[in-house]
Amino acid sequence: MFDNLTEKFDTVFKKLRGRGRLSEENIKDALREVRLVLLEADVNFRVVKDFIAAVRDRALGQDVLKSLTPAQQVIKIVREELARLMGEGEANALDLAARPPVPVMLCGLQGAGKTTTCGKLALSLRRQKRNPLLVPADIYRPAAIEQLKTVGRQINVEVFDSQPGQDPVKICEAARAYAELNGFDTLILDTAGRLHIDSELMQELVRIRDSLEPREILFVADAMTGQDAVNVAESFNQVLDISGVILTKLDGDARGGAALSIRAVTGKPIKLVGMGEKLDALEVFHPDRMAQRILGMGDVLSLIEKAQSVVETEDAARMEAQLRKDGFTLETFRDQLQMIKKMGSMEGLLKMIPGAGKAMKQMKGMQPPDQEMKKIEAIINSMTRRERHDHRILNGSRRQRIARGSGTTVQDVNQLIKRFSEAQKMMKKMQKMGPKGLKGMMRG
Ligand code: GDP
Fold first, then answer.
1. pLDDT score of 115
2. Which residues does 282 contact at the CB level (< 8 Å), separation at least 6?
3. Is 268 left (phi over 0), alpha (psi -120 to 50) or beta?
4. Cα 132 from Cα 159, distance rounded (Å)
5. Is 161:77 a contact under the CB 8 Å cutoff?
6. ipTM given for this complex
7. Average pLDDT for residues 105-112, to the nearest whole number?
8. Which atom of ligand 1 is nearest to the CA of 190?
9. Pocket of ligand 1, candidates 151, 277, 280: which has the most ligand atoms within 8 Å of its Cβ, to mutate?
10. Coiled coil: which residue ranges (predicted)?
11. What pLDDT was estimated at residue 158?
């Protein structure tokens, strides 16, 4: 995410840090470079202008120039102003406090990720113990209704039964009545999208809004389309008075323009972000954490939350029981790998650790961790159950068979087994020591 932007900020800041004292001219030079970096990332030029003015006013204050670490102070100001640009200090959680069923309307252009995001939102609400009903209100593309039904099946959330050709307002009203009768507390309305803004469509969305009075009207914006997304968001906002934005495809190589401009241009907060095609790839948007990520400072808080949400699943409990029963074997090791994979790509995770993104770039030629993980999994999958439970029986011919089966080499297999048996020895030692011994070891 925003790799290019992060890299360029890094270059500007490195220059700044390289000097001991800073003159006004040094700061002005750096800000000129920051301005270019932002424009190249497709940030709206008025937004850039205001941003630079705000940073300049604060950075040229005497306190900064006289401080012992002027470069750090400037970087801190940039971070704070970036966060403010994205809405720092505003509430960005969905407001669903109303008499159920609470309607939430998603709108946006075709291909922005509306239907996928409806599914992600439903899954996330269910994890928060709500009971959502998905409502397909795009009656122009029969495939759209089918797509939402498929999404609903994947996450086990009911999809209201609508037919192509029905009036979308009638569908939404019928869905509300159905939800009242059947105990659904949230309606997620998947509205129609077009390739371009179109007044007929807008009127239809207005009719849905006026009839259902959604608690949230969320514009779904594709981050990859940069300023176009910002302009379209503003058009939707003018007609519909949206309550917030969901920015999708932030996992791709978006340049950052949409994320950095949309709040300032529309005055509406980014509430959620899509971080992948999978239905659990939806995150709450935190402007301060995003600013840190953009500046390559990592995002440890999000990493911890992510780990917690995965660890809270039933899988974790099941795995713990398995570990207790079988000990640390290749099979439990594979389960652990799969759990880590659920948290997203290893590379994505590593980037949340401060400095790790940069460190990874420097390790050129190294196998990317995700591919390494896939290889390990393939090798373990090619083993029989017995072999997974006791790797000591893996003789030469077994190793050859496993290498063939997993499309790897015998060296790969040997290396994995060697590393695994070292890890196993260490686990055994740690178990013997118990929690007290472990603490002693950490202190030492
Ligand atoms: P709609 O036309 O607005 O309903 O868009 P869809 O939900 O059909 O999504 C269009 C495409 O974008 C699909 O291929 C989705 O898998 C993909 N997509 C949606 N959200 C994300 C995201 O956050 N990241 C990535 N990488 N792809 C996404």
1. 95
2. 117, 120, 121, 123, 124, 272, 273, 274, 275
3. beta
4. 9
5. no
6. 0.98
7. 93
8. 4
9. 277
10. none
11. 95
Mean pLDDT computed over 111-127:
94
What average pLDDT does the chain have?
85
Q: How far does the centroid of ligand 1 lie from the alpha carbon of residue 419, in Å?
A: 39
Sign of the CA dihedral with 146 first, then 225, 235, and 220 last: positive
| 353 within 8 A of 300, measured Cβ to Cβ | yes
CA of 118, closest atom in ligand 1: 7
Cis peptide before 101 (omega within 30 of 0): yes
Instruction: Report if pTM > 0.80.
Output: no
Q: Which domains does the chain have, with CATH numbers?
A: 3-85 (1.20.120.140), 102-296 (3.40.50.300), 306-443 (1.10.260.30)
Per-residue model confidence as pLDDT tens digits over 134-172: 999 988 877 888 999 999 999 999 999 987 778 999 999
Write the CA distances from 383 to 47, 346, 376, 399, 403, integer angstroms.
57, 24, 11, 9, 10
Which segment, 62-71, 366-375, 378-387, is predicted with the most confidence on average? 378-387
DSSP structure class, residue 124: H
Q: Is 227 in the pocket of ligand 1 (CB under 6 A)?
A: no
The token duo for 9 is 């900020």
Using the atom order of ligand 1, give the atom closest to the CA of residue 273: 23
Tokens of 120: 């992600």
